[in-house]
Amino acid sequence: MNNSDAPAPAARTPAWLKWARVLMLIAASGAAYLAWVAIHNGPAAGCGPTSGCSAVLQSRWAYWLNIPVSAPAVLVYLALFGATILLQKNTMPDEQRGSWAAIIILSVVIAGSAFWFVSLQVFVIQSFCKYCLTAHVCGIAAALICLFHIPYATDPDTPMWTPGSGKRGVPRRAVLSLVVIGLAGVAVLAAGQLLVQKERNVVKDLRGPAAAAGTNQLLLSASALADAEPPTPNAHLIAPRTLSLYSNQFVIKFNDVPMMGSPDAPNVIVCLLDYTCVHCRALHAVLTQASQQYSNQLGIVCLPMSLSAQCNPYIPKANSLAASNSCAYARLGLAVWHAKPQAHREFDDWLFTGVRPPPLDQAMAKAAQLLGASQLQAALADPWVGRQLLTDCKIHRANWVAVDSAAMPQIVMGDAVSSGPINSLDHLQTLIGRYLGVGLTRNGR
Fold this sequence. Notes:
Helix content is 51%, strand content 10%. It contains 14 helices and 11 strands. A 6-stranded mixed sheet has the order 3-11-10-8-9-7, with helices on both faces. A 3-stranded antiparallel sheet has the order 4-5-6, with no helix packed on it. Strand 1 and strand 2 form a beta hairpin. Helix 11 packs across helix 12. The longest helix has 33 residues. It is elongated.
């Protein structure tokens, strides 16, 4: 190795550097797209509402300190790309060591962060985002290529930070310190996500001029919706055990639909849940706790619906997963309720257990155990099941128009609609207190 302080002769870009840059640009492009999706609160292309992408991108782990993690990821990828440019541009030994210091730190940050996020998808979210994984794989590959090509100094006395030595290469003892700095960056990322939980639901209180628009706006074309006032759900009791939504377009009779709590409760919220939706499954346990906390002061209408285009005419086929059995689970839940309401709570608690629903054949067997095989078949064949499922899908569509979000679960509270994950019982209680405006207290006191 030439230890003179003269600049190294200009050289053609080595193949490994070209590959690293290409991979970094791919990773940066993927992260930039995910940041755009997060900022616009929209679905990723080719990812349906029940897809792994949706589960990952709508989770708390998609954010760091309330910022989409993909946004700083773009900056880190581009910073590493820029460091490789400076490495080739600056040929003096001290300048190259500075470039390599940045490359080592950034490479460790990228590789460590990718390991963190892939582990979250495997062990915590238990779903996978193809865009995320593509960016992570390309980022790890670029980082490893860079780390593999570190030019270690042949002279053990080569200083890392003292200028003017004229010696080339990175001293081995300094690499460990740079790796530790990179790992500290990964620790900051993990700590920020663990300590600060992003609220992922979108809530809109639609009281105001929109109330006058009523039902008619639900019938507007897609092009007209952008310029129209959103409708208001205006959820309120119009008779004992009867709730009106969207100016009586939907009239819900509590004796005819699944419900937690007392049907005579003075305050009622309406929840739309898809059995295959990860966040809906998490909300079920929260709703159970809320029902116990508020006692007879709160009724919770739980409407099974589906995000599959197989039975939901309002879901674009491109964004629907036909293999999810979402429709079959929704029909099954409604059939159990219709045939034997007193068995529905046990069935629902069983079906909502775990991150994923049990296989459909097991769910059918459980329903048959509770109802009897012949009664189950008769219930599934009852036209009421299809009509109620379509009604639930229409309510989802109305909420979608109102808040400009199809994310599940959805909760209607008076004139407000929440769309997206609910983090905890405290989160739900905050929403109920804020948007129902009735000052609910725990245990009904």
